[in-house]
Amino acid sequence: MTISRVIASLSVLVALPQGAGAQDARQVAISVDAGKAVGKLPPVWRFFGADEPNYATMKDGRKLLIELGELKKGQVYFRAHNLLSSGDGTAAFKWGSTNAYTETKDGKPVYNWAIVDGIIDAYLAEGIRPYLQIGFTPEAMANAPAGTPYRHSWRPGFAYNLIATGWTYPPKDYEKWAELIHQWTLHNIERYGRAEVEKWYFEVWNEPNSPFYWSASPEEFYKLHDYAIAAVRKALPTARVGGPDVAGPGGTFMDGFLKHVSSGKNYATGETGTPTDFLSFHAKGKPTFVDGHVRMGIATHLRETDGGFTKVLSIPSLAGKPVVIGESDPEGCAACPGPANAYRNGTMYSSYTAASFARIWELAERRKVNLEGVVSWSFEFEDQPWFAGYRQLSTNGVDLPVLNVFRLFAQLGETKLATTNDAQVPLDVLMKNGVQGDADIGSIATRTADGKVALLVWHYHDDDVAGPDAQIRLSLNGIKGKPAQAKLWRVDGDHANAFSAWKKMGSPQSPNQDQYKQLEAASVMHAETLPVATGQRGGASVDLRLPRQGVALIVIDGQ
């Protein structure tokens, strides 16, 4: 099947009705007490990442970095694989390289920071900071069996295990490994300044509990980790270090790692334990393809999240450490398109993102976990077919609906307000069964820094099929004054949605200049106004109709 026919089939699968005008709308009541704070809502959503580091310096990658940096200037972080992999810096699926380390014929190290500097420069230019992943093993250093290729040649459709080539092996010489990291850290301090580098996160490798990423024993990884952390701290004693960014909650591997860093003998220093400023694991959902449509796996995603929280709380000396979910996504492979992943182009991805982040916040609060970050493993894929179904935030430089949800997150305050909602699926039900009956029409209300009330509302179901709209009555108490109107931002089939616009223009794979501008314009959210009915004693109400898979933000003056 040609790529154009694949794209066409994906478009049909995702082009399901966003609302169901012939069906009666579901009546939903949401009540917010603007005068009652009930906790904090940390901005954990401000972390992003990608396998392919070199896209950050390419045209569409640079454009997207600008947009990510604008979400929360100076507080957005980016994690990337392959920052120490050997190669010429040419990007490919699930691959990247910087050639930071080579050796002379007689085995002496040669350091070259030009490519990796360019990547970090691109982040910092837009107010984005590195969540610096130390890896993978440079070719000259990798202890791979003779004849093992260093770089993989994986592409979409190939077996996933083909990515596990020479870069997955530990170093032959740990002193050289440590010195590489020590010199890199010294260089970063010299180039960017100590105060800047102190704000970064430093972690070693990716998913060392997975045979796709680590071709050695758990103990060998602990050694790799110890030497790397010791090298960073030698150059910068105040560096923020942690890990291990395991796949899922980590199982027995995570148990062993936590025991090692808390009470084991450090391979590099001989001391007890390894410095640990934060802990990290990954959590993914599991969509399936059922009766011609996608059924999301939000329950799996949340169970993995809860499992990871349970792990990091299992060692008392580590239980209060900040936690970063180093990859948190609806499924596993960003570079894998196909019918089951075509939902990424449209509003299923955006509504899932709103619903899943809300429950991750709720789980962290329930477990009393110090959740600091949630990394969305989604960036962009340079010069690929339009709306090809990759897990990304933009396509050919045009934003997808999911990116607008992060813009809505950015407008939320960090103080939660007391809220009741008669249509939000309870957390325990959602973790057990997902959303298989009535849709999850959920909400989070917050107080912003300037005193306004910001309410996020989403209309989510696991099944990517049509359903009735939600007719929402928002009642607010504790509002001072009598606001006449509220501001509204929408992400749905008809708002802030370049995918819908692209289909309406015939799904062109080579949009001309005018069409490109139209797609850019269609991706932009625009503020609307909603009338506010005011009552006695600080009461007010707002009515909103929200289609299936819609996400909206209502901001009202709460002074």
Quick overview:
With 559 residues, this protein is of the alpha/beta class. Helices cover 29% and strands 24% of the residues. Among the domains are: 24-38 and 414-556, Sandwich (Immunoglobulin-like), CATH 2.60.40; 77-150 and 174-276, TIM Barrel, CATH 3.20.20.80.
CATH C-level class of the domain at 77-150 and 174-276 is Alpha Beta
**Shape-level CATH architecture of the domain at 77-150 and 174-276:** Alpha-Beta Barrel
- Characterize the overall form: globular
* Strand order across the largest sheet: 21-20-24-18-17-16-1-19-23-22
Count helical runs: 13
The average pLDDT is 94
**Could you name the ranges where pLDDT drops below 50 across 5 or more consecutive residues?**
1-22
Helix coverage percent: 25-40%
Number of strands: 24
CATH topology call of the domain at 77-150 and 174-276: TIM Barrel
Query: At the fourth CATH level, what is the homologous superfamily of the domain at 77-150 and 174-276?
Result: Glycosidases
Main sheet record: 10 strands, mixed
| Radius of gyration over all CA atoms, rounded | 24 Å
Structural class of the helices, strands and pairings? alpha/beta
Strand content: 15-25%
In whole angstroms, how far apart are the ends? 59 Å
